[in-house]
Amino acid sequence: MKSRENLVRLKRFQVSEKHRQILQLDMMIAEFERMAEELDLQIAAEESKAGISDINHFAYPTFAKAARQRRDNMRDSQTDLVEQKARAQAELAEVEAELAKAEALESRDGGARDQEGRTAAG
Length: 122
Known about the structure:
The mean pLDDT is 90. By secondary structure, this protein is an all-alpha fold. The chain contains two helices and no strands. It starts with a helix and ends with a helix.
């Protein structure tokens, strides 16, 4: 029955790791959002300073163009992280289901052992 205990312990570890992974992804998504908003502010300030907001204008500020590219890359990365988070949440649901099964088996086996112990003692 020791193997069931080990299985339950393994599943609990996997559940906690998935929770940690999802938390990390949430933090990274929030950080990317903050950085993208900061870049938006820098772009707006540069466009305001230059008086040109048309990205196709020949005199559009180079810094604003570069900041737009960085912001767009940041948003793409953020989208990728959101997809990773969705996959991790699906994996978490699977691992939680496996944990519930393992705990049910362990408690059933534990109940059977208790019953055997009472029968032998009585």
